[in-house]
Design a protein that fits this description.
The complex is a heterodimer of chains A (225) and B (398). Chain A has helices at 49-56, 79-88, 105-115, 124-133, 148-160, 178-195, 206-209, and strands spanning 7-18, 21-33, 38-43, 64-69, 72-73, 90-93, 166-170, 198-203, 214-219, 222-223. Chain A is of the alpha/beta class and 225 residues long. In chain A, the strands form two sheets. A six-stranded mixed sheet of chain A has the order 6-7-8-3-9-10. Chain A has a four-stranded antiparallel sheet with strand order 2-1-4-5, with helices on one face. In chain B, strand 3 and strand 4 (137-141) form a beta hairpin. The relative contact order of chain B is 0.17. Classes of the chains: A alpha/beta (225), B alpha+beta (398). The interface between A and B is large, with 65 and 55 residues.
Chain lengths: 225, 398
């Protein structure tokens, strides 16, 4: 008997209001992601990629449709349950890194570990990830003292500290130069290949998408192939 | 859970070389409370000007309360101390007068003779009081009778009256007005000669001969109050009963009663005034913290979005904001208490005779609690805004 998909989206619609206009960001999207997959989602600007990211991360509610994340049906979850899903099941990597500027890299990670209720020390598995990411010697620095590539690696570490089932990355290389882009994408591929981390990466860059094991395309709020 | 597969090869293409710091160095545990406090402190340190201004505003609120209370206590205690210094056992005040009201002179001085003839009365003497501007007043007295009752003034410079133009002042009034013996002073349209400067703590700060003052007040043979000394302490109550029976309508107190009545709680107007000042202080604290935390929440919209995105609960975000507010208000309270020593020093050196500010330790926690309470009221709306903030909108906030 095959395992249930870790991400399952059926007939997903999302309409939001921008000023006086209704924006139909998602219009019947369907998607299944198996555990351990590295899926790239590509599409032009306005195709609904970021809205899909926000819905899958329980950051926003769909207008209609079914979204199941690691067996949790999002529409049945309360606000606190959605927060619990975000801290335990889903890890986020954003284009703009989104580190807390007043904390050191280490404390950015530790605060998320604390929010996730994962104890006071890093697990051996996570220490291994830090080693892969190559940021141990930058952990006492605040974000402003780190390069874009280093900040993004700290953000990846932060996303993984609570050992989430799914890593969602929204344009993770959008603010990086080519050298760091390659490095971060290589890291994501390693995390998927060596650790079995399920990753769903939003990108508009075809070359970046090629690092995933599977690429799906979005257009006009739908997944087209 | 992550399956462990080791060892991992270095990742090629990184912009910095793989670190040489042992991964084990990351194993030291961090106490969650310390981590949250670090976030709170770093947030406050991130905007030092706003933090300092907020602390100062709360400090001024606390200083305002403590200074007012300190001056109230100082003024009342000073009055009580000077009243005790008279050496009388009983005080007779004019009908309808308040405890601290500066009366003019409605009592006939013939009453002194009547009182003096009562059984067990050793001595009776009256004074007239003419209020001046501010907190000052000038007191007319029979110096011989007063000296017999109190033991007399302890002169620091000069000595008793020699002429009707002579005036005696206490050390604080002399210091405030920079007076020395022989100086001329213009008061109630009359030029006085400073004949003596006496040690503070008896009767009044400015004294002149009783008949001269009565004449200048247009109140000849009239007194503001009468002091009575019994022939022995054991007979004070008997004299009191006798006086109350003979002089119905006159407020008559033992000096113990009178000085114990000189408290904030027994002076209704003062209590109301302090209440108003506390109300203003709480409002100031509320507005300052509201503004500070509202702008802090606005500025940190994105950070709050990040915390929400990683699963922080509303309680966690509230906890952060409340801790920031508590820290601001507690530091503000401590600074405010320290500032009261500055106001005390300023008063002591600029208006030592007019205002005397005491340090009222029992009001420190009260003023602190008022500051914290006002600040917590001020954080409610910003905190609600932060908690209700949409995470996706917050993350896209620039």
């Amino acid at each position: 008997m095959s395992e249930q998909p870790i991400i399952k989206v059926q007939d997903l619609y999302k309409t939001y209001r921008a000023g006086d206009v209704d924006v139909h960001a998602l219009q019947g999207a369907n998607l299944e992601v198996e555990k351990g997959e590295f899926v790239s989602v590509v599409g032009a600007s306005g195709s609904g990629k970021s809205t899909l990211f926000n819905v899958l991360g329980a950051l926003t509610s769909p207008t209609s449709g079914v979204v199941s994340i690691a067996g949790n049906n999002l529409e049945s979850l309360s606000g606190p349950q959605r927060a619990a899903l975000r801290k335990k099941t889903v890890g986020f990597v954003f284009q703009k890194y989104n580190l807390l500027p007043t904390l050191t890299a280490e404390d950015n990670i530790r605060i998320v570990q604390y929010i996730g209720g994962r104890g006071r020390t890093f697990s051996p598995a996570f220490l291994a990830i830090l080693d892969i990411l190559g940021i141990v010697d930058r952990m006492k620095h605040k974000p402003r003292a780190l390069s874009g590539g280093q900040q993004q690696r700290v953000a990846i570490a932060r996303a993984l500290v609570n050992e989430p089932s799914i890593l969602l990355a929204d344009e993770p290389t959008g603010n990086l130069d080519s050298q760091n882009t390659t490095a971060v994408l290589e890291l994501l591929r390693r995390l998927n290949r060596d650790l079995g981390q399920t990753i769903l990466m939003i990108t508009h860059d075809q070359d970046a998408a090629a690092y995933g094991g599977r690429t799906i395309r979005m257009r006009d709020g739908q997944i087209v192939d | 859970m992550f399956p462990m597969q080791a060892p991992f090869a270095p990742v090629s293409g990184l912009s910095s070389p793989r670190c040489n710091v042992p991964v084990d160095s990351m194993q030291s545990p961090t106490h969650p409370e310390a981590l949250i406090n670090k976030l709170v402190l770093s947030n406050l340190a991130h905007r030092p000007v706003r933090t300092v201004l907020s602390v100062l505003a709360i400090a001024v609120e606390v200083t305002m309360i403590l200074t007012l209370v300190g001056v109230s206590y100082g003024t009342l205690d000073g009055t009580a101390r000077r009243a005790r210094g008279v050496g009388a056992d009983i005080m007779i005040r004019p009908p309808g007068s308040s405890i601290i009201g500066l009366s003019t002179a409605p009592i006939s001085d013939s009453l002194v003779r009547v009182v003096a003839q009562l059984p067990h009365v050793a001595l009776a003497t009256g004074t007239a009081i003419q209020p001046l501007s501010g907190f000052d007043s000038i007191t007319g007295l029979d110096l011989d009778a007063f000296s017999r009752m109190s033991g007399g003034f302890n002169y620091l410079q000069g000595g008793p009256f020699k002429t009707d133009q002579d005036m005696l002042v206490d050390e604080y009034y002399a210091k405030e007005k920079k007076l020395r013996v022989g100086d001329k002073v213009e008061l109630i349209n009359h030029e006085w000669n400073v004949a003596g400067i006496f040690e503070s703590g008896k009767l009044a700060r400015i004294c002149v001969r009783l008949p001269v003052l009565q004449e200048l007040m247009g109140n000849s043979h009239r007194l503001s109050q009468i002091y009575v000394k019994a022939d022995s302490e054991a007979n004070v109550q008997q004299v009191l009963q006798e006086l109350r029976a003979k002089l119905p309508g006159y407020p008559i107190y033992t000096m113990e009663e009178f000085t114990s009545l000189l408290s904030i709680n027994s002076v209704g107007m003062l209590r109301s005034f302090i209440g108003v000042v506390i109300g203003v202080a709480v409002t100031v604290g509320f507005i300052v913290v509201f503004m500070a935390m509202y702008t802090a929440v606005l500025e940190r919209t994105r950070e709050i979005g990040i915390l929400k995105a990683v699963g922080a609960s509303s309680g966690f975000i509230l906890n952060l904001l409340v801790r920031e507010t508590l820290l601001l208000s507690l530091i503000g309270a401590v600074v405010g208490i320290l500032l009261t020593y500055v106001t005390q020093w300023l008063m002591q050196y600029t208006v030592p005779a007019s205002l005397n500010q005491e340090t009222v330790y029992s009001w420190w926690p009260i003023a602190g609690a008022i500051a914290v309470g006002g600040a917590l009221l001020g954080v409610i709306v910003p905190a609600i805004r932060a908690v209700k903030q949409d995470a996706t909108e917050a993350l896209s906030y620039e």
